[in-house]
């Protein structure tokens, strides 16, 4: 008894033996007698290990490699505080528990390091100071992700292409697999290569990517993977191939087309360059004309420019019909062809233009022109008008200008008066006139000269000693105010005048003292700032003097003086009559001695009088070079002029005019400043490039356009775009840092200076600049191996490549104790071996990353390393003790190995050397050994041992390979332990191969030997024996046992009849050689021999088995063969008795088409010279009295396509026929990439190709002859060649629409 109660008169005792946790609780003691009752409660706590945690044990957040467990504290803590929990796990196919965590303080834990696809059971135990309590177990849980890999993205498209980059875009996958897409992976493949290359180094989260570092001219295709928490998707459909090349296009239309001039037989048209040149230089222009018609489609355009293309931006169209209207259009041409045309607005008529006369009077001529006496007056006035106007010069109120030399052309008129005097002052009128009208302007000229003689000199009062004179001011004051008068007198007996008063400021004067009775002459002279009047009263005497001798009249010389003019005329002049030769002289206007300023687009006109005998030759230069050809230079005997129309900034500079004759040379300098926008900035250079910025620097333009540079405008353009975008429009420095830029992108930059007249011409970078910088230093330079003459090193790529791919690494070496670093070599990989080193020396190494921007900082080895051979024992360290793989899947087990010298590696399986096959292979490297099993089979499971050995020792390790598969058949034979009239007890042994997990149950079937039908006895037998009840008395049965695990059912183990007998009592005098055994059915009288060979034992097992196929995974795959080759389908099978074999393929007699071979355990079908018609499904059926089995097999023969289906003519016109068809039923095992269409006239036998590159299922055949009858046929083409042609059913007559 566990509980024992004892009573005495005064006490009672309760004893509990071997207390356990459940014995705790409340014990109630009640005492009663006649006087009443008393009760006492005892609370008993049994100190023990805690009870199980309160369930259920929840498994949540299950993924392929972890899950979360949750539970509640135990209801019974065992009388002590729960100090922690122990969590354990085991695979459901194993019995051993593995510790996950101990001393856990909380009631939740994340279990890591699970194997995907394995089924696990977890348990949790509470711990107190008395020990570990009972366990709470979970239900079986399979470690797998609740999500799958995503669908592939949509096929990528290329949207922008340059010679070294392409921009891809794609769509999100249709399904994300239950987990958000975290990134995309992009790969490319060169048409000339076989390998896919990854493009992105960093995670790509957008739906576009710029693939860089492409080879110009190569064709590339791209594919994209999506990635989520479950892993990478399958790749997208590959894009078409795209060629890496800069996009070149035809140019845009020229801008601003306009008419400059017309005549009765010509039209002059002009235009500006196109805004967009198509990416390459404009090579010329084409001008076309046509006569307008009512219908635009009837207009005939003719090219009027030369065949070699016109380079200028203006052109005169000649040989036109007078009065005819014309349409004109202009097109630009580049290397890609002729661009879009632009039309001149409206129609243009070939007729003479009538322009009213116009006078471009210079601003200086609108003022009063002041000129010194004896100088030359030159009035130069540009004129225009159609027809050319006639010019007429007059003075004042219409007087003719006799002293002037007048010259008129189609563009200007000029008036020149030599040696002007006061009488040349006045208003000069210029009138130009043509049939369209007239125009008159006036120029006021003031000659600065001595004044003329005072007027009306009178004697108003005469006394004996004084005379009073009065007069009036001169009629011509000489262009300036008269300062004073000079009064002179002369006695009649004398010839010379004497001055009476030289500073008379009035117009009256009293001459005193005079001698009474004397006769006097008086005269008054006016004086201004230019001198005293040369005239006077009485008239002055005039003398002509040559070489200090006074001249008189002679046979060839006549002197004729007037009151107002001195005149000499020389007839038949001789050398002695002339003056000496005169050196050239240039009469530079004072305004031209200053800087001449003119606006861009205006015309420059320089007019310079010249002198010299003989007449000098004139040469105009600009900046020490001849003036440009378009400059108009005119030279006469008295002046030279220079006219330049449409001035631009390039016309600014120093203009030099040089006059030269036999007497000498004279040069004058005129500085011209054109007010225009600036020229391009100079010396544009790149100072610095980083992954996000480019720093530019430049110098001011050579030409500032005549105005101070206000600021600079900086613009950028991506190499994939056509237009520039402004970076800064108000830069006041000669440098600028352009940021932010997209890392890895290529940019062009341009700088423009701006002044008061606008933006100047740009300075553009010659090549595209990539936004990148030098990379960071490589990571973790380490020594991977060494010997007495070599050291092997390895490093990792830089954390950041600077935005440009690292092209190579520079490895350098330094001998310890020296300062010089020596280059070893450059490497494209991240490992290297430095050989030919001196034994026993210590060396230091460093490595530098190099991209297209330069070198990174070096990564130096942590310390020097000595060249010596290393020796240490080998070691092998598998990461896990076992590895599992599903049958038919691939398994790679990579195990690290160590040791110097390099150890030899030996693998064995189940104690025997491992046999290498095409499926099972070993790959050894210096640091790893790798077991590779392709399409794992059941017999690949087992214990694998790895032995590594070298001179220093050896080491072994063992791993278990578990092939997860359905189990093998139970081990026989089937034993009949007990047989009664209505039941049989049978037993068997477990399968030798359980498929990597425990057998969950057995399926037992029975069969009456008189039928072929199997009946289930039990589907869930857990043991290896069973009693089969309810059998018929006297009936004969066969039993089948099938093992089952989580991966499927095994083949069955069938029971068999074992017959035993004793040896004969006597051998007849000769040893018994063997026995023969016969059987007979109960209702038959015929005995049938069972054994085929002699039986040597006294037992015989009568085996029977249903027919079945013994094939592996390979046999169930599609067999692919090339056309023209032979193939054989060999199928092993089982069955007792040996089954019959039938081969079949729909519509084919295989006994005729192939060769069939049958043995007791296999059958084969051989097809010679296969073709497309041999593709399809083949089936082999085996059958016996016990049943039958059928195995289908697929064969794909790679051949050219079969004939297209249903070729017919859909529509017919007078010169065309439209065909349609359906794809071939047999495509030859490859996609039909194109169709060939051929035609044949009914009167001919030869077929003529129409097209060989049709990608649709319809085609329009054109250029057919009306009324003719044609036959058509279509041929498919794939990678293996042209297929079988298929004709339309009947000929087609080309007669019009049907």
Automatic annotation (TrEMBL):
Residues 53-146, 152-247, 253-353, 453-550, 680-774, 777-870, 969-1064, 1203-1298 form the Fibronectin type-III domain. Keywords: Immunoglobulin domain, Repeat. Residues 357-442, 590-673, 874-960, 1107-1196 form the Ig-like domain. SMART domains: FN3 (SM00060), IG (SM00409), IGc2 (SM00408). This is Titin. GO terms for biological process: cardiac muscle tissue development; sarcomere organization. It comes from Cynoglossus semilaevis. One of its GO terms (cellular component) is M band. PANTHER family: MICROFIBRIL-ASSOCIATED GLYCOPROTEIN 3, TITIN. It comes from the Eukaryota. CDD domains: FN3, Ig, Ig_Titin_like. GO terms for molecular function: structural constituent of muscle. The keyword Secreted does not apply.
